[in-house]
Amino acid sequence: MTVKSERERQERVVVGLLAACGMLTSLQFTLIVPLLPLIPALLDTTAADASWLITVTLLAGVVGTPVVTRLADMHGRRRMLLLSMGLLVAGSVIAAVIPGFTAVLVGRALQGFGTAVVPIGIGLLSALVSRRRAVLGIALMSGTLGMGSALGLVLAGPLLDGGGLPTVFWCSAIVGAVFCALIRWRIPEAPAGDSRGFDVVGAVLLTVGLTSLLLAISRGQYWGWTTALTLGFAALAVATLALWTLWERRHPAPLIDVRTAMRAPILPINVASFFATFGMYANHLLTTQEALAPRSTGYGLDVATAAAGMFLLPSALTMIVLAPLSARVITRFGGQRALLLGSVMMALAFVFRVLFHGGAVPVLIGSALVGAGVAFAFAAMPSLITAAVPADEVATANGVNSVIRTLSGAVAAALFGFVIAALPSEADPAFLSEQALQISLGFAAACGVITALLATFLRRPHPQEPA
């Protein structure tokens, strides 16, 4: 075997393994979602407390990702990748072995630190493999958010039926442990490029600000949007994040370079990421709603909870199949055109869903079409960011993008709950009315249009250093 062929084989292993790790971490956010109605009986708790199993994972991901990705750029990306995966495995084991709601809550929090795997993996790809293969790898890594979240909804029911709630967590623990061993064996460390110190004050301020913001968004529908608790957390988030911005602008070694994050093309890319991710989660939420709703709503398919996730399988498979094609489009035409193509496809797919719904075939086709748009859009965004920042800030910059995607998912879920409460179906108040479904699908189409407009006027990145 020649040196060139051996290197190509090693690069394929690196790309495949990192993409698989990203898929596993993305699963954690939705794997528990279809099981929420059963959690009160399984863990002897209330429905309101059960929803914390989602919130705490989001909190850990939002807070931990900027810190871990910054440490990755400073002290080694492979080292921090192993740390993130190790925390995910530890959390899965705790939730599987120790009975009771508290232990599962702790385990879910630790699983949330796996969010950092995708931006760290993108940083490793940019350092370890050739540019051509890095584009494909980044497309796969970025797409794992959509693939994994869709597959999590599909797998939750069969895993629960197969062995109960512990089986759901044992699956993550075993697969994660195997991936950790493979990372140590097959992925080399990338050189650490940033020797500046760690911004402790900035990390604390960002943690308080993001935690307050996510609590206000994700818990507002349970506490009440106008209650003192929700408004208090929202005010604390605004004040703390404003103070954090001022601190970061003056610190010689900031946790996140605010000046870089606020200038073109980074800021428009992150704003586009928010709207594109909103569309992806809207696809998940509204597809599940159509599958579960009774036929009396006028659009529902009335399928069993365990089978509802199967309607998202076309979306996940489409993203997997189109990832190589999206990488080729980026290589040949650039990330800007790939983002524009993906966002236009998403917008048109949601328009199709507004016009055609109420049957299994239109739902399956619509879900797949949205997945096609997500494949191109999600592949383009981290490629654009990676090309626009210095090589020693790749993980940190993509970590910020990952946080924005997570916040977008939380906003989508909160807005979805608000719309159900405001416009319920007369046949069953637990579901949207048909008019509300059409409005929601139309809003998701508008998110695709906004993303397309941002992509159209996106300025071509001029990196300080080639990534």
Describe it for me?
- The protein has 467 residues and is mostly helical.
- It has two domains: 3-198 and 255-456, MFS general substrate transporter like domains (Growth Hormone, Chain: A, Up-down Bundle); 199-254.
- It is built from 19 helices and no strands.
- It has helices at 3-30, 39-43, 47-50, 52-75, 77-97, 101-112, 117-128, 131-163, 165-186, 200-223, 228-250, 258-262, 266-292, 305-308, 313-333, 335-355, 360-388, 394-422, 434-456.
- The two termini are 29 Å apart.
* CATH topology name of the largest domain: Growth Hormone, Chain: A
* H/E series: HHHHHHHHHHHHHHHHHHH
The CATH architecture of the largest domain is: Up-down Bundle
Q: Cα distance, first to last residue?
A: 29 Å
Beta-strand content estimate = under 5%
Number of strands: 0
* CATH evolutionary superfamily of the largest domain: MFS general substrate transporter like domains
Helix content: over 70%
Compact description:
This protein is an all-alpha fold.
Index terms:
single chain; 467 residues; mainly alpha; Growth Hormone, Chain: A; 19 helices; disordered C terminus
Q: How do the helices and strands line up, and which of them pair or pack?
A:
Blueprint: H1 3-30, H2 39-43, H3 47-50, H4 52-75, H5 77-97, H6 101-112, H7 117-128, H8 131-163, H9 165-186, H10 200-223, H11 228-250, H12 258-262, H13 266-292, H14 305-308, H15 313-333, H16 335-355, H17 360-388, H18 394-422, H19 434-456
Helix pairs in contact: 1-7, 1-8, 1-9, 4-5, 4-6, 4-7, 4-10, 4-18, 5-6, 5-7, 5-9, 7-8, 7-18, 8-9, 8-15, 8-17, 10-11, 10-18, 13-17, 13-18, 13-19, 15-16, 15-17, 16-17, 16-19
